[in-house]
Amino acid sequence: MPSERTEVQVRLGVEADLDALTSLYNHYVRETAITFDTVAFTAEERRPWLLSHPEDGPYRLMVATESDSQDIPGTSQEILGYATSSPYRPKAAYSTSVEVTVYVAPHAGGRGIGTLLHEALFAALAGEDLHRAHAGIAQPNEASARRHERFGFRPVGTYREVGRKFGRYWDVAWYEKEL
After folding, report:
1. What is the largest CA-CA distance in the chain?
2. Predicted pLDDT at 2
3. How far apart are CA 117 and CA 80, in angstroms?
């Protein structure tokens, strides 16, 4: 029996994606401890974040969309997830390290989208002057930990009760990967 799933494509994020990316992120702000932001953003508040991920260089934004979505110039396709690489820390000596993050739309889980996003992000970063990728995973999140380990990340430590959200404290496990 043929699959009813549509194919997923991964591409660079563009400014037309801002509203959809903000909406997806705000789901995680409001509903989960996966991010420690506690107040939802407007698209305009998220614009500097989007613009900090240009088409090239070490800080990228990759988005996953349905490949059969209409591709109308100036409009966004449905965003199924996104991956970013961002500065690990602001000091110059950290410039060859990035922090990577993946968010998948709640209705799109279990389709391998996180894996596709990680693959595309690491392919885009392959030619960059980078030494390590780091990822912080709020605990518990076994699916994220397994995916990171499949991509060669190894656990390096856990910050205990480092964030407070929804009236409780959360741990963050840190992982790293050589690039």
Report:
1. 55
2. 40
3. 10
**Cα distance between residue 41 and residue 37, in whole Å:** 9
Q: CA-CA distances (angstroms) from residue 31 to 25, 46, 59?
A: 10, 18, 27
- List of residues 6+ apart from 128 with CB closer than 8 A: 57, 58, 179
Structure tokens at 116: 């596709």
Q: Are 122 and 98 in contact (CB under 8 A)?
A: no
Pairing of strands 79-87, 97-104: antiparallel
**Residues 148 and 137: beta-carbon distance below 8 Å:** yes
Whole-prediction pTM: 0.90
What is each CA distance from 103 to 14, 38, 86, 116, 161, in whole angstroms? 16, 16, 14, 12, 22
